[in-house]
Write a structure and sequence with these properties.
- This protein is mainly α and about 475 residues long.
- It has 22 helices and no strands.
- Helix 10 packs parallel to helix 18, helix 11 runs parallel beside helix 18 and helix 16 packs parallel to helix 19.
- About 40% of the residues are buried.
Length: about 475
């Protein structure tokens, strides 16, 4: 547990920092560009997640699973790396060659250049995926953190330069002149440069992979394990971001562009909730596999689930009682404020998918990853049906409810199925009460008392103290000082 907490803290700090860069960048973008101008950014990057999953096709999780039995690290990393490399090169070639018809098919005929930039960026990120896995496997979190943070810094500084500094100099800087027509495209360029530098910084890890160490027999086994993970990951991304495509295709062009921009810009606030989940996931996945044979493994899973839910509920509660202030300060553009009211629903959707990811360990440990694909397919079907039928009437509100309905269904199905195949005695009653209380307080407060921030934070502190004490997350010395036993 101490080792897990140490690695999670370091990976978590790294994740928080690197996620803070795009998080801080977003207000710069929303302040500069209205929803319609912002929409290409939300549009393309909603598809980018799907492509990223296909390019890596589950090899990251598969690597950690096979590292338990495969003693030859060179063979394992080479097989995984060249699998990703081959898929990425095919994608890179066909996307660049057919970028114009692809842009037309996706209703972005005037964004061919942005499509090309994004294509190369995603290819570089895919090339870097397995080297990052090697850093995690070899427990080199400092190098991992250094490269990730450098990527974020470069991306942030370039966005500031292109969007804030460069427009102030009509004559240009370093022979560069700001082009209003290119606009949001500068954000794509910043991402491309940052990904290029990251790829170059991983050259030592890239040299580990050798084509002579590639094993067809091992690759067949890895693909058999990884393709259901790919389907599950693909379904997860579709659930998370593909509603932007529904907004674009199911609404009239101008309305769709506006709704897409508002929804994409406002949804970035959910990053507050996602940060903890991602930090936790980075440390927890290798830990789950390496400790799966311990006799007290299930007891540890129960405790970790309790902690995960408690901390997430506190994050959601704090955000909800301060949402009116946080969202407006963060977005910093009245054109987006109409969408703030969807955020409490998206916060709880993020909580549900986090619980699902914790529950999913049962089918990964039992090598039943196909079950994850089935569950994710149900989630995707829920998302598609709700978006398809209700977006024409309710716009991004339909996307909001589709997200929480999909994640809730996946969470419940995974729990029920898991208790049958790999029973873990989770504290279902206690955690359900905690989630329900958090939902009632958060939604009621935002609906009726959102202007009274002081009262909201007082309620938050009271519930936080009770919850942290219940989960034994407050040191006894502190409890003694404040008179609580």
């Amino acid at each position: 547990m101490k080792k897990l907490l140490g690695q999670t803290a370091l990976y978590g700090l790294t994740t928080v920092i690197i996620r803070l860069f795009p998080f801080v960048i977003n207000p710069i973008i929303t302040r500069t560009f209205g929803p319609s101008a912002y929409s290409p950014y939300a549009d393309f990057y909603s598809v980018a997640g799907v492509i990223a999953v296909l390019l890596t096709h589950g090899m990251e999780t598969t690597f950690f699973r096979f590292a338990l039995d495969e003693k030859d690290d060179r063979k394992l990393i080479s097989t995984a790396f060249f699998s990703v490399l081959a898929v990425t090169l095919v994608y890179l070639f066909f996307t660049l060659v057919y970028r114009k018809p692809l842009a037309i098919a996706f209703k972005t005929p005037d964004q061919v250049d942005l499509l090309a930039i994004l294509t190369v960026t995603l290819a570089l990120d895919a090339f870097s995926a397995m080297p990052f896995v090697m850093l995690r496997k070899n427990e080199r979190p400092l190098k991992y953190a250094g490269i990730r943070i450098t990527n974020g810094i470069i991306n942030f500084l370039l966005v500031v330069f292109f969007i804030i500094i460069l427009p102030r100099y009509p004559e240009g800087i370093f022979s560069l002149k700001y082009s209003p027509e290119f606009g949001i495209g500068y954000v794509f360029v910043a991402n491309l440069v940052a990904s290029s530098v990251t790829f170059l910084m991983l050259y030592q890890e890239l040299l580990i992979a050798r084509i002579k160490h590639f094993s067809w027999e091992l690759w067949k086994k890895m693909i058999k394990y990884s393709w259901p993970i790919t389907i599950a990951g693909l379904a997860g991304i579709i659930n998370e971001t593909f509603d932007r495509q529904f907004l674009k295709f199911l609404l009239p062009e101008e309305i769709g562009r506006h709704e897409l921009g508002v929804y994409g810009g406002v949804a970035k606030v959910v990053t507050f909730v996602i940060l903890f989940r991602q930090a936790y996931s980075l440390g927890i996945e290798p830990f789950f596999f390496s400790n799966s044979k311990n006799k007290n493994a299930k007891e540890m899973y129960v405790k970790l689930m309790d902690i995960f839910i408690a901390i997430n509920c506190l994050i959601v509660l704090f955000l909800s009682v301060n949402l009116n202030l946080i969202a407006k300060v963060y977005i910093n553009n009245p054109e987006y404020y109409e969408g703030i009211s969807i955020l409490p629903i998206l916060f709880f959707a993020s909580l549900f998918i986090g619980i699902y990811l914790n529950l999913s360990i049962w089918y990964k440990l039992t090598d039943k990853t196909i079950i994850g694909a089935y569950i994710s397919a149900i989630g995707v079907l829920t998302t598609i049906i709700i978006n398809f039928y209700f977006i024409p009437k309710y716009g991004y509100w339909a996307s909001t409810w589709a997200t929480i309905a999909s994640y809730f269904a996946m969470m419940v199905i995974s729990y029920v199925w898991g208790q049958y195949k790999y029973p873990v005695p989770y504290n279902i009653y206690k955690n359900s009460i905690i989630i329900l209380v958090t939902m009632v307080v958060s939604l009621a407060y935002y609906q009726y008392l959102k202007e009274n921030i002081w009262l909201g934070n007082l309620i938050f502190l009271l519930l936080a103290t009770i919850l942290l004490k219940t989960e034994n997350l407050i040191p006894q010395k502190i409890l003694n000082k404040i008179g609580m036993k």
